[in-house]
Amino acid sequence: MAGLERSDIDIATRGAEQFVEFYYRAYDSDDRVESLPKFYRPSSSIVWNGNPIQGNEGVKQLIEGMPRSKHEVQLHDCHPVPNSMPPSLHVVVAGTVTHGKAAQQTHPTSSKAVDEQPRVFHQTFILSPDAEKDEGGHVKYYITTDNMRFVG
């Protein structure tokens, strides 16, 4: 198989931009318990801040026990995984997340509660192509692996 071409990287970058937008919108939504697990499969492997979780049901259980959140993505990067066609994607995201009451407010209060203060996070995904395509015939992706870690 030939090496990566510029078009491969452009396609991966556009796919990652859409993924990041949809994923964190779902994560912060009112229906996140139903919508977020759809990004995963039963075989998906997740490590959430050092805690292993298995599959979409594990994600659902995790989210059910968490307070509301608001993510502010500050950067993301994506690279197609060589020798995979359509390519799997390696996506890295960094930003801040606020949990609790402050996540629902436009301007958080100056509360000293840790669960209401923005925390820096770093998240790495491997996205794999799904067997089914979207309505336009484009490749759909699901999360194969997800590693999220609070920084500091």
From TrEMBL:
One of its GO terms (biological process) is nucleocytoplasmic transport. InterPro entries: NTF2, NTF2-like_dom_sf, NTF2_dom, Nuclear_transport_factor_2_euk. PROSITE patterns: NTF2_DOMAIN (PS50177). Gene3D superfamilies: 3.10.450.50. It comes from Schizopora paradoxa. This is NTF2-like protein. Coiled coil: none annotated. Residues 15-150 form the NTF2 domain.
